[in-house]
Design goal:
By secondary structure, the protein is α+β, with helices and mostly antiparallel strands. The strands form three sheets. Strands 6, 7, 8, 9, 10, 11, 12, 13, 16, 17, 18, 19, 20 and 21 form a 14-stranded mixed beta sheet that branches. A hairpin with a 2-residue loop joins strand 10 (about 210-225) and strand 11. Helix 2 packs across helix 15, helix 11 (about 485-505) packs across helix 12 and helix 23 runs antiparallel to helix 24. The chain starts with 11 loop residues before the first strand and ends in an 8-residue tail after the last helix.
Length: about 775
């Protein structure tokens, strides 16, 4: 089981240099073959790479190095620069190219015997010899770009595998594998741009590793004396990547901010010579798929103002988003919105209503077979009236219905498969030897490229060759969102994972009933893993760990203590949003190739904020704060008392959310954060809401669970459910809910005063202006 495939995989490298060239010597894990790569150092601003077609033995490679040393004695000979474990890519700013190398790695787990690694150290090495560099190589802007790229810390939350497609789900790897595909086109491969030149030149990927950004955790757990392995993977998309207030909503291509696919894998430790039983379930989170933003100009308010864009018309971007999900995961798509529908804050309520209105419009024009289903669950409101365990149990019932519709993946993997391996990482098509290149400007769907790659072997190839037996498959996916898709979303994803865990263990034969209760020790073990994932994803997008008040309540932690911890996280989050996120967004844009420096063009920091941060959208002329929306009247929501006393369709007929004028200017696809185009959504027929209503009655909603708010009228494919703030950072509201915390505010301000300053603390605690003046 512990043995991994090394077929066609170079896993260990050494970088040597002469005056005129770099030489990289790579070998496989078992030391059966060696390859040589040469990089020209006498070019000041071009990348010239040559691969030796010869495959060497160890003694032959040693002899080659000896001859290279002797042949370059006059200019200093051959010198070892560093040992390394793969090329992350090549990047150019204004003149020289740089090579990014993994110099230290750490094994963090394995899937089907294939090792998964994290980076513990990396280096960025200039390629050109100092003697051929011009003054531009040492310019202020060149140094600034270097420092900017280095702020993308490859040792945090990046992982890779030489022999397993960790950017794809287990089900896709085992059941939908095709030769001839280029996995660097996948949306979760973050170094696609950095590796594009070497891959296009060499027509293979032997020398590079595909980096995934997100979260990976593998733990050993047990139940009834039997041990199993739990793996939790979060894969963050690169297509509309960025930080909290700088990337919101959906872009014109249907790509959303904070797009993360989460996969939970459960596997048994197979005995020697026996098949391994393994199961996985995938869920998804992403920003509300409307074109919306929050005005961060000057960060004058604690919570920036909301705005919806006028190009919302016909919800084309929203349609494209759900069309992409259906292509990627199948049907049905179960949409769980945790946005507020009640309470004092009207901005989020109006966003929630606009979202429901968009889904209503889309469903009315979709064929019935698409099975797009929508449910609202105000987590904040429910948690105010009920205990956390009660609320999670209610969510669990909804998730049980969801899993009845989507199913889970379960299969038997023969030992031959995980010992020999099944992934051809050179991506040379077996039929015609062609290599399918990535073109960042090509109009291809990155999520569905495998359906377009010519005559590659079909998905049955793995089945026929290795005898993989799949007895269950997942069709469709749960899509969860709150405002930031961080705190509330992570709570819901944990509960979904717990319900799925029961079914996975039941399929593997570990338990008789497909249920794991919240009081089961496994629930606490799973909570720790999801809590770690939530903190990691929140740091990446929001700048602080997640707010975990609900987890703390389940553990019985003293409520004021939990509130104090969340308060510290809130200060950290908003400090990061106000002062650090701009640099982080710049670094992400350069790393992903969405901004490419050019001589004679404006530098990144000379662009206006609209071009630089908002994907080409300039700052809004008008936007809505809570007070602004309130002063204009509640045209979208009738009243908090009526939300559960009339059908949602009637609620949405009450009016539409006012839309401010937003001047826009187009940018290239790269600047928009997308390198793919999307097919038009052309519904075949129109299906009535009433028809879809009959299909969706099995999904429990807020009305089904609460007699006190039960609505006897049907909500068709839309359900009203409700719950907790995504950021948990409204202190007025938090203090109202936790009176014990009020007395500690002054003490907390005193604790933070030395680090943050009084104006910043007043902004956080009381909503005062951060910067004064006009």
């Amino acid at each position: 089981m512990g043995s991994e495939s090394s077929e066609s995989c170079l896993q260990s490298f050494r970088l040597y240099e002469t005056f005129s060239n770099y030489y990289i010597i790579g070998r496989d894990k078992k030391k059966t073959f060696w390859k040589v790569l040469k990089i020209d150092r006498l070019e000041s601003s071009e990348l010239k790479i040559y691969e030796d077609s010869t495959t060497y033995r160890e003694d032959e490679c040693a002899d080659l190095l000896k001859r290279l040393d002797e042949g370059n004695k006059k200019t200093g000979g051959l010198k070892l620069v560093t040992a390394c474990y793969g090329i992350v890519g090549f990047v150019k700013f204004l003149e020289p190219y740089y090579m990014l190398l993994i110099t230290k790695r750490r094994k963090i787990g394995e899937i089907c015997g294939h090792a998964i690694y994290a980076i513990t150290k990396s280096e960025m090495i200039p390629i050109s010899n100092p003697t051929v560099r011009t003054s531009m190589s040492y310019s202020k802007n060149e140094n600034r770009y270097q420092k900017l790229l280095c702020t993308v810390d490859l040792t945090k939350d990046f992982f890779f595998s030489y022999s397993y497609h960790v950017m794809r789900s287990l089900q896709k790897n085992l059941c939908e594998y095709k030769t001839g595909q280029c996995i660097y086109n996948k949306k979760c491969v973050w170094n696609a741009f950095l590796t594009s030149e070497i891959r296009n030149t060499l027509k293979n990927t032997l020398w590079t590793v595909a980096l995934v950004h997100g979260f990976f955790k593998q733990v050993k757990l047990s139940i009834s004396g039997r041990e199993f392995t739990l793996t939790l993977i979060a894969r963050r998309s690169r297509l509309y990547a960025g930080t909290r207030y700088l990337k919101r909503g959906v872009n014109k291509r249907g790509r959303v901010a904070n797009d993360v696919e989460t996969e939970q894998i459960v596997s048994e430790d197979a005995a020697e010579g026996r098949t391994m039983r393994i199961s996985s379930v995938v869920q998804y989170r992403g920003s509300v798929p409307l074109i919306w933003s929050q005005n961060i100009s000057g960060f004058r308010k604690f919570k920036p103002e909301f705005s919806l864009a006028p190009e919302q018309h016909n919800y084309e971007a929203t349609k494209l988003h759900f069309e992409n999900l259906a292509k990627r995961y199948g049907k049905p798509i179960i949409i769980l919105s945790l946005l507020k529908t009640r309470g004092k804050k009207r901005a989020e309520k109006n966003l929630s209503a606009a979202y429901a209105k968009a889904i209503t419009s889309i469903i009315e024009n979709l064929p019935e077979k698409n099975h797009l289903r929508f449910c609202r669950w105000d987590l904040n409101t429910h948690m105010y009236h009920r205990r956390a365990i009660q609320e999670l149990k209610q969510l669990g019932e909804f998730f049980a219905d969801t899993l009845d519709l989507t199913g889970i993946f379960y299969c038997h993997v023969p030992q031959k498969l995980y010992l020999e391996g099944f992934l051809n990482l050179s991506y040379l098509d077996e039929n015609n030897g062609q290599f399918y290149l990535e073109n960042l400007n090509a109009h291809e769907d990155a999520d569905n490229l495998e359906t377009k790659v010519g005559d590659g072997v079909g998905s049955g190839d793995v089945y026929r060759k290795y005898g993989v037996k799949s007895t269950m498959s997942q069709k469709g996916v749960l899509r969860t969102n709150c405002l930031d898709c961080l705190d509330r979303t992570n709570i819901a994803q944990y509960m979904y994972g717990l319900v799925a865990l029961g079914r996975q263990l039941h399929a593997l034969g570990f338990i008789e009933s497909p249920n794991v209760d919240l009081k089961n020790p496994l629930a606490e073990d799973l909570m720790k893993v999801y809590e770690a994932m939530g903190d990691t994803l929140a740091l990446q997008y929001g700048g602080s760990p997640a707010h975990n008040k609900i987890f703390a309540e389940i553990r019985g932690q003293w409520r004021p203590a939990a509130g104090y911890q969340d308060l510290m996280k809130t200060v950290q989050r908003f400090y990061s949003n106000a002062f650090s996120d701009f640099v982080r967004q710049d670094a992400i844009n350069v790393f992903l190739g969405y901004f490419r420096p050019q001589l004679g063009k404006l530098s990144l920091w000379e662009l206006d904020s609209g071009q630089r941060f908002n994907g080409g959208r300039s700052s809004t002329k008008r936007s809505f704060s809570d007070s602004d929306i309130h002063s204009r009247g509640d045209s979208t929501m009738t009243s908090t008392d009526l939300i559960h006393n009339q059908p949602l369709s009637k609620e949405l007929q009450g009016g539409s959310m006012s839309v401010p004028d937003i001047p826009t200017q187009p940018l290239s696809d790269e600047a928009q954060g997308d390198d793919t185009s999307i097919l038009e959504c052309t519904p075949e027929v129109s299906t009535s809401i009433r028809q879809l209503m009959q299909v969706d009655q099995s999904l429990r909603s807020d009305d089904n669970h609460n007699d006190e708010h039960r609505d006897v009228s049907n909500h068709s494919s839309l359900f009203d459910m409700d719950w907790h703030s995504s950021s948990g950072n409204s202190f007025v509201e938090a203090n109202d809910r936790c009176p014990e915390c009020k007395d500690t505010i002054d003490q907390m301000k005193g604790k933070f005063l030395g680090e943050y300053g009084m104006s910043f603390l007043n902004w956080v605690f009381h909503g005062e202006a951060l910067f004064h003046g006009s």
